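re the bet — no i am not wrong, look at it urself. input seq straight from the record:
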Amino acid sequence: MIGLLTLQAVRQAGAERVFVVDVDDTRLELALQLGATETFNSKKQDVVAEIQKRTSDAERMLRWSASASRMPSALPSKVCGRVER
C-alpha cells in the first residue's frame, strides 16, 4: 500500500507519467484508478523492457517493496538519470 500512497504523492507533486509495477492485478487496477499512467505485472511481463519501449527520458525511479526478491531489476542508468530509494 505504500506504493499506492507514493503514486498519489508523486502525481500531486507534478509527475507527468508514473509506471507502477506489482505482482497483484487487483493492486495494479487500483493504481490505474489512483492515477498511474500504466501498470505492469512483473510475473507476466519483462518490466524493464516494457518501460524502455515507452520512455528514453525517465528522470527518476522510485522503488518500494516489502519483499526485495519480488522487485524487478532497476532500469539501466542510461534509461534513468538517477535511481532514488
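see?? The chain has one domain: 2-84. told u. also The first strand starts at residue 19 and ends at 22. so pay up
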